[in-house]
Amino acid sequence: MIADKKQFMEPGRGVYDTHRAAALSGVPASTLHYWVRTGLYIPSISPGPRTRLWSWSDLLALRAIDWFRKGAETRAKARVAEIRKALEQIELSGYSREDLSQLLAISAVDGNLFLQLPEQTIRANDSRQVAISEMLYLVRPYKNGPDLLQPRPLLRIIPGKLHGEPHIVGTRIPSLTLGALDRDGYTTQQIQMMYPDATEEALREAIEFERSLTA
């Protein structure tokens, strides 16, 4: 349960274009564009249409919507109409859509959605019926998307640092930069000469991670 609405406030916001948001969230870019066009979920930083920019909280919300929609052997899936109604109820409760990933839960039995508010858990529709439900840990790896706090043992994502870009732990060296050098043909040894603060193991992890996002 949620103790205080202040827990939803990020220490900082990541900034990702749609391609990067898709790779990190594990949800295809075509799906993100479709959700924007249909009004199901709009990126919180820049809605486009030419440039769409997503926050770190958006990544969690995108995973949540996709997870709710897919269903699985152990749970039912939520209908689009249920998700739309849930988003409306989140806003009526005084929260923003960015809070979706921390507020919304799903019933494993029938796919009904719930809001886990500080005082109680209620159905995420006009009835607001009190209920009990379970939450999804959205920062963990999802589909092809990595862990959104520790994508690799030596990499970290901190929303308020380097615009939320994955970086080598204890440094300000983003994996995106290292991946670009790798694509340009630089060897690990050459890259390490440019970034002596990074160990060879960390550089290899960062390069492998960036390769996995574009595979």
Which structural class do the helices and strands define? alpha+beta
Q: End-to-end span in angstroms?
A: 38 Å
**Total helical elements:** 8
Q: What is the averaged pLDDT score?
A: 82
Gross morphology is elongated
State the CATH architecture of the largest domain.
Orthogonal Bundle
Strand order of the largest sheet: 1-3-2
Largest β sheet strand count, sense and barrel closure? 3 strands, antiparallel
Number of strands: 8
Task: Return Rg in Å.
Answer: 19 Å
Oligomer: single chain
Q: Helical content, roughly? A: 25-40%
Overall number of structural domains: 2
CATH topology label of the largest domain? Multidrug-efflux Transporter Regulator, Chain: A, Domain 2
Could you state the order of secondary-structure elements as H and E?
EHHEEHHHEEEEEHHH
CATH class of the largest domain: Mainly Alpha
Strand fraction band?
Answer: 5-15%
Low-confidence stretches: 1-12, 132-136
Structure description:
It is a single chain. The chain has 215 residues and is α+β, with helices and mostly antiparallel strands. It has two domains: 5-123, Multidrug-efflux Transporter Regulator, Chain: A, Domain 2, CATH 1.10.1660.10; 155-214, Winged helix-like DNA-binding domain superfamily/Winged helix DNA-binding domain (Arc Repressor Mutant, subunit A, Orthogonal Bundle), CATH 1.10.10.10. Helix content is 37%, strand content 10%. It has eight helices and eight strands; from the N terminus they run βααββαααβββββααα. It has helices spanning 18-25, 29-37, 56-70, 80-92, 100-103, 175-183, 188-194, 200-214, and strands at residues 16-17, 46-47, 52-54, 104-106, 113-116, 121-123, 155-156, 167-168. A three-stranded antiparallel sheet has the order 1-3-2. It has a three-stranded antiparallel sheet with strand order 4-5-6. Strands 7-8 form a two-stranded antiparallel ribbon. A hairpin with a 4-residue loop joins strand 5 (113-116) and strand 6 (121-123). Helix 1 (18-25) crosses helix 3. The longest helix has 15 residues, at 56-70. The protein is elongated and about 60 Å long. The termini are far apart.
